[in-house]
Write a structure and sequence with these properties.
Oligomer: heterodimer
Strand order of the largest sheet of chain B: 5-6-7-3-8-9
Strand content of chain A: under 5%
Number of helices of chain A: 12
Shape of chain B: globular
CATH architecture of one domain in chain A: Orthogonal Bundle
Number of strands of chain A: 0
Structural class of chain B: alpha/beta
Largest interface: A-B, 21 and 22 residues
Number of helices of chain B: 8
CATH class of the largest domain in chain B: Alpha Beta
Largest sheet of chain B: 6 strands, mixed
CATH superfamily of one domain in chain A: MetI-like
Number of domains of chain B: 2
CATH superfamily of the largest domain in chain B: P-loop containing nucleotide triphosphate hydrolases
Radius of gyration of chain A: 26 Å
CATH topology of one domain in chain A: MetI-like fold
CATH class of one domain in chain A: Mainly Alpha
Number of strands of chain B: 9
Largest sheet of chain A: none
Order of helices and strands of chain A: HHHHHHHHHHHH
């Protein structure tokens, strides 16, 4: 088992190095292309060359810690650039400067208090947005009339970026917390609605027939067929929603905020502290990654009945 | 095991399915055109017919699944009615046992569900996901789901059509054993003449929207293929379906 996993890793690495030496790769594909265009009779016995198992088209086993490959590569490039002086510290602080700055910010408590404020805003916006999207999707998914009423306005809202609504929201709700939470919620509810509604409507009608023949009540039908059937769609919507929540947070915190990670970054901009800005960016990035990983974990747990390409 | 009484005993069981002048139309076409059919309690009826002859339409009418179909007629069936579909139709997000007891009420549904699974030979697989089962196993779960409700009428729409030949034979044996024990009336839609003869007390052939032929199967059990009576019945049913068995042989040779 471990050897197979190791093979996968080497395959992945081979893929990466192949990308950097693009010229040769193109050369070989061109050669194979000319080979395949040859009439079949001229190249006899070609099949005998292939002795190993047939090439698999599925994804194969998951690579251990495969998700970390890209971020680590990015970090390596950044560190190398700073160490060699290719990256000017005035434009982008070195990773180690960012680490010490982060340490200072944690020591004097600024990072924690700002993070707490930001997390609270995101969580509240996410809560209201997800609840709203979920309820609207269920109502409009289960009734033709409700769909006629709800779906149109949601599609219109979808065409208007939430961030473009900020001027109006400031006029209506002021520059306080409620405006921020509402902006986040508005950004969050759309993907939850779209994907849950889609998941609901693509439930196989054969299962609806089955529910009729075993005489499920309306509530039992909802519980046993509709909700689990719409769950994959809902969770996909959730993945968009959590990243959307952090995205909206960045914007609302840089408009008239007096606390939060975005405010901390905005303040750092006026003093030219790129290290603090980077700390803020890293925190945002980590929060996005963590929340996405959390949703994916929930996905794996609750959707273990599926046997798909992803495994 | 008197699995096939043939419906000719002195005290015939009461009629449990009664269909009179049933009409079902799709557009201008009357798929069922004044169909009459009676099925007695505990009787196993196989419904044969060419594709498009309305077999499934009749079955769906009995199952109460024909919502947007126009039609009329008198139709009475026992309660409850269970359906076995061609696909096992298990909810993929529910484990095997939860699929069996889906919508099941009464006392101790889980215990009854376990017993039903044991009856179809799947004891110990209660916690499996449907995707982990073979096609035959899935169809056995579907049988357990149907029989745990102790139906007065079991409707089966080509239930073994998607299975391989060996699995199908084993399923025939299982179905006969289960029906002998639970004694539901059965209406089995099939286009397999041999399956109809092996399983049924009576074979009805659907033609032009009505029952074209109604033939009791009076062969001793177990009904193996072969034998003069078997061959004669098979030939007659094929003729009713508009197939000339001799011509078929010529084509095959």
């Amino acid at each position: 088992m471990s050897t197979e996993a190791a093979e996968e890793v080497t395959l992945k690495k081979a893929g990466l190095t192949g990308g950097t030496t693009g010229g040769t790769v193109i050369g070989t594909t061109a050669a194979t292309a000319s080979e395949t265009t040859r009439p079949p009779g001229i190249a006899p016995g070609r099949a005998s060359r292939r002795l190993g198992p047939r090439r698999r088209l599925g994804l194969g086993r998951p690579v251990p810690y495969g998700w970390a490959l890209g971020p680590l590569l990015l970090l390596a490039v950044w560190a190398a650039g700073s160490a060699t002086g290719l990256i000017d510290a005035r434009n982008l602080s070195a990773p180690w400067t960012v680490v010490t700055t982060a340490g200072d910010l944690i020591e004097n408590g600024r990072l924690q208090s700002n993070l707490a404020t930001s997390a609270q805003r995101a969580a509240l916006g996410l809560l209201f947005g997800v609840l709203g999207g979920l309820i609207l999707a269920l109502v409009s998914g289960l009734s033709r009339i409700a769909e006629g009423v709800i779906d149109g306005p949601v599609q219109i809202k979808r065409a208007i970026p939430s961030l473009a609504l900020i001027p109006l929201l400031i006029l209506w709700f002021g520059i306080g917390e409620s405006m921020k939470v509402i902006t986040i919620a508005l950004g969050v509810f759309v993907p939850v609605y779209i994907h849950t509604h889609n998941g609901l409507r693509t439930i196989d009608t054969r299962y609806v027939e089955l529910a009729e023949t075993v005489r499920l009540s309306r509530t039992a039908f909802l519980r046993h067929v509709v909700l689990p059937g719409a769950l994959p769609g809902f969770l996909l919507g959730m993945r968009f929603a959590v990243t959307g929540a952090w995205l909206a947070l960045v914007v609302v915190e840089q408009v008239n905020a007096t606390s939060g990670i975005g405010y901390m970054m905005e303040l750092a901009r006026t003093y030219g502290q790129t290290d603090v800005i980077i700390v803020g960016l890293v925190v945002y990035g980590l929060l996005g990654l963590l929340s996405d990983a959390l949703v994916r974990l929930v996905e794996r747990r609750t959707l273990s009945w599926r046997r798909t390409l992803a495994g | 095991m008197a699995t096939h009484p043939g419906g000719l005993t002195a005290e015939a069981p009461p009629t449990t399915v009664r269909i009179r002048n049933l009409i079902r139309s799709f557009g201008d076409r009357d798929v069922l055109d004044g169909l009459d059919l009676d099925v007695r309690a505990g009787e196993f009826v196989a419904l044969l017919g060419r594709s498009g002859s309305g077999k499934s339409t009749l079955l769906r009418a009995l199952a109460g699944l024909d919502h947007d179909v126009t039609g009329s007629g008198e139709l009475s069936s026992p309660d409850p009615v269970s359906v076995v579909f061609q696909d096992a139709r298990l909810l993929p997000w529910k484990r095997v046992l939860d699929n069996v007891v889906l919508g099941l009420d009464g006392p101790d549904p889980l215990e009854r569900g376990r017993a039903a699974l044991a009856e179809v030979g799947l004891a110990g697989r209660e916690k499996a996901w449907p995707v982990e089962l073979s096609g035959g196993e899935q169809q056995r779960v579907s049988l357990a789901r149907s029989l745990v409700r102790e139906p007065g009428l079991l409707l089966a729409d080509e239930p073994f059509g998607a299975l391989d030949a060996l699995t199908r034979i084993r399923m025939h044996v299982l179905l006969r054993r289960l029906c002998a024990r639970h004694r539901p009336a059965v209406l089995l839609v099939t286009h397999d003449v041999d399956e109809a003869i092996v399983l049924a007390d009576r074979v009805v052939v659907l033609a032009r929207g009505r029952i074209g032929a109604d033939i009791p199967v009076e062969l001793p059990a177990p009904r193996a293929h072969g034998g003069a009576a078997y061959a004669a019945l098979r030939e007659r049913l094929l003729a009713e379906l508009g197939v000339d068995p001799t011509a078929q042989e010529e084509n095959a040779a």
